[in-house]
Amino acid sequence: MTSFKTINDVIVLIFILSWGVGCHGQAETGIAPMEKTEREALYSTIQGFVGYWWNGSELYPDPCGWTPIQGVSCDLFEGSWYVTDLNIGPFYDNSLVCAPNVQFRPDFFALKYLKSLSIFNCFTSPHHFPISIPTKNWESLYGSLQSLEFRSNPGLIGQIPTSFGYLKNLQSLVLLENGLTGELPSNIGNLVRLRRLVLAGNRFRGQVPDSFGGLRELLILDLSQNSLSGPLPVTFGGLTSLLKLDLSSNQLEGKISIEFGKLKNLTLLDLSKNKFSGGLVQSLQELCSLEELVLSNNPIGGDLLGVGWHNLKSLVFLDLSNLGLTSGIPETFIELKRLRFLGLGDNKLTGNLSPKLEALPSISAIYLNGNNLTGDLKFSEGFYGKLGRRFGAWNNPNLCYPNGLVSPSNRPFGVRPCQQEVTLYGLDHDGKSKVSNGTLNQNSQFLASLGFSRYGLDGFWKVFMAETLMIVLGLNVLI
Ligand SMILES: *[C@@H]1O[C@H](CO)[C@@H](O)[C@H](O)[C@H]1NC(C)=O
Ligand SMILES: *[C@@H]1O[C@H](CO)[C@@H](O)[C@H](O)[C@H]1NC(C)=O
Ligand SMILES: *[C@@H]1O[C@H](CO)[C@@H](O)[C@H](O)[C@H]1NC(C)=O
Ligand SMILES: *[C@@H]1O[C@H](CO)[C@@H](O)[C@H](O)[C@H]1NC(C)=O
């Protein structure tokens, strides 16, 4: 949790530093030249969001010059100033903060050089003042708009307007944690310059449109935390630039597509908490850049033996818990030299545990609890000491550790000593219940500590900060 706090601090710092870049004003030499229509459109747009009390012409007579407005940036085009960036919501202490009954005024669409619109924590009243995204007029911004962001607006309801399909220059579309519903419009797939598409944390349903596979420049695709269903389009193999794909917490089903193997630059794949089935496909081993693979909580079934895990040389975080896997644990895992987290808990894995896992140089957590592993644990005492409770082997009734070889303080948690099998078996049962109740969600806590919290940070920051933190904090991330 401390590292999560650090992420926030870093982001706040970045915002503070970047805030110096505002209007390029022509200080004290009179009013910066600006068309009256542009100025009036700006005032009216802002007033719609913050309320009638806000009188722009009185408070900010020269909005691109000597009276800059917090959250508004301008640039010079053919001798006149135009608004290029508009940020509404409590980004900073003295930001423009929205009124309870917000309006999206049509004057907004007159800001013809607008490159970036960001509305954060503005429409907050889903019951009293719900508001929809305007369906019309987006075409008037098609040449200019590069970044469109609605974030943390629970009062923003309704569907994504199909007219977003006109915004051909859009590079970033972020609709994160709002109250949006309906199906994903397939013409979002026409926005071929998109590099970031984040639609997480809404109530979208239906299938992921095939057209999304045409977004060849996309780096980040995050559709997590919705109610999307059906199989993934086979066209996903076309997303060859992708670095991060997060589809977690939906109701997606079917086999994990072989097409994923084409995503050679992918560093994060999170398909957890869906209904994927049909076993682990071999093509997963072709994701040679992968650092984090999270498939947990899917009825995938099958075994661990069909995937050449040793090919995933960059893998740092591997979570395959609760997939219904039935096999032994292959020794190829020991070639994952960068692996820090291995989650195999709550499967039906059998067989002995190779003590070679101890040789994983970077490992900080192994969860094998809730399986049917058998035999003696043969790890060294130092290994148990290093991992502590992060060596999870409880709830494997036929597993034991050699009594006498491990000092009491380093005994693997929830595992019985071998010699006392018969007498301690019953006690162990009680122990197990307590253990599994007390140690839920190691994995999600780990993700949160990497900055993967679903609330607060969007896709780009998740990846960026997680990577940075891993590099900077090293093993401390896990503690
Ligand atoms: C803002 O104030 C000016 C003069 O102070 C006044 O003329 C104008 O009507 C006001 N505008 C609005 C929208 O209240
Ligand atoms: C994958 O990453 C490499 C190195 O960053 C880059 O040169 C290459 O263009 C990327 N591939 C695609 C398809 O974007
Ligand atoms: C666990 O494995 C043992 C044999 O190794 C087998 O007898 C037992 O039925 C298995 N238990 C479960 C719950 O699968
Ligand atoms: C957790 O504890 C409750 C009672 O405290 C018990 O009914 C339940 O079975 C326990 N869960 C597990 C998974 O052991």
From TrEMBL:
What is the species of this protein?
Actinidia chinensis var. chinensis (Chinese soft-hair kiwi)
Q: Which Gene3D superfamilies match?
A: Ribonuclease Inhibitor
Major localization listed first in the record, in broad terms: membrane
Any one of the GO CC terms: plasma membrane
Organism lineage: Eukaryota, Viridiplantae, Streptophyta, Embryophyta, Tracheophyta
Arranged from A to Z, the UniProt key words for this protein are: Cell membrane, Leucine-rich repeat, Membrane, Repeat, Signal
What is the name of the protein in this document?
Answer: Piriformospora indica-insensitive protein
| Subcellular localization | Cell membrane
Instruction: Show the coiled coil region(s).
Output: none
Residues of the signal peptide: 1-25
User: What PROSITE patterns does this protein map onto?
Assistant: PROKAR_LIPOPROTEIN
Q: Which residues form the Disease resistance R13L4/SHOC-2-like LRR domain?
A: 166-298
Single Gene Ontology BP term? response to other organism
